[in-house]
Here is the input.
Amino acid sequence: MGFGTAAAKPNTLTSNKENRGMGLLLVFFPEDQKKINNSIDNTTTSRFIRRTSSSLLFTKAQSTISICVLLVFLTLLLFTLSTFEPSIPTPTTPSSTIKNSRRFLSQKTQLSSSSSHWFFSMWDYKPLHVKQKPDVSSSSFALQGMGTLYRRGTKAMNDLIVSHVVEDVTEDELRLFLRVLHRSGVTSKADTVFLFGSSSLSSRFSYVIQEENESFLKLIQHYKELNNKGLRDSVFSFDSTQFWKSGKKDVGEPIWGKKGRGNYSNSTEAEGESTRLTYGSVVGFDVNELDPENSLAGFLDHIPMNLRRWACYPMLLGRVRRNFKHVMLLDVKNLMLLSDPLGRVRNRSPESVYLLTKESSSGKHSKRDSEKIQSRCQVNSAILMGGARGIRRFANVMLTEIVRATMQHKKKNSISESAILIQLVGNGYILKNVNLITSTESIQEASSLMGLNSNSAADYSIIQRGNSNHDLNSIIMKLICLCEVDSSVYRDC
Here is the structure.
């Protein structure tokens, strides 16, 4: 018993020492006890973090979408301000229109959108219409920062005359073409576009076009002051009644030049008058503006104007496709208009294209299909007219055929415009989307109309100059100057 009691005491002392050791471990290492509590807290915190991260992602997505919407809005605002063009006060009577025509054109290029200047400077952006040409005193942009506006018409027209000026046209030829064009009355229903081969050619003929436009307005005013509407006693006489329309009504604003604010009204209609003066716009374009890449440069060494023009028509006609119903393509060098020839196509479909051909009496037939077609007919490439849609499609096909012809010929510069036109007339599949109308109507030379009066020459709305252009120009000028009113208007009479 004594030994048992003595043995139990050492065991009790040993367990007490171990408990004291465990207590010391807990005192010196308290983190182990907190792990259990931390595991529970971590589970709750992870759930909170997940919810917080999802809300942050949603907030960032909303911010990104808001920034994108703001950028789209600023882009639209920038585009609207860049195309904004302030209105310009226009004269209210024919007399003031004539007197202020030069000042009216010069003011157009000097005005700018001052209200949007701070916005453009902030974005370091310069709008197209701020850029000015060297001769800002007599011209302004015609369309979307391109071209030259020589005269803005009184209303929006349904017809468009695109006249290309070849390289060898002289000033007298262009002057006569535009003078006869104004006197024919066709400009009372159509806008006129001149297509020049270079910017230097455009600058060279600018004053000729301006002078003829001013002479036309003076001629209208003279006939109005004399209360004389003019008589068609000669082929080249002037009838001012074609430019006066009866009734008062709102008219559309011309597409050319700077747009005005609000509804466009005829600025040449005087108060209390039942008639208003109506005439179309006159503008000009350089081929480098409408065909900046020179599409045919890689296929031809020298590109004549009669081929280069087909590369310019797609852009020009595409930009005005919603503004005109009928289009005429005309050669300034070879043709003149005595009256309105577009009456032949006004009642036809928008896809129609009217071509003037003449039968050939040569009886030789070649093996090639193109030569067989050429032996039967010849297409007059100096004039084409029809619906706006048909002319635009025809121009696109013609440009494609020019490129194809240059690739098939080994020798460059060996293709001709007339030969390609003949191939198109004979190939119905290529022009399946075009309502092609061919006519054998003959075009008389101007020399054959000298002794005819207006009744005898009523059927000849188109004339060709012929070979003796110099003598013919002087003869026509003398016939125009026979009238006393006309001779007082034109400087060269």
Confidence is low (pLDDT under 50) at residues 1-15, 20-29, 85-138, 361-375.
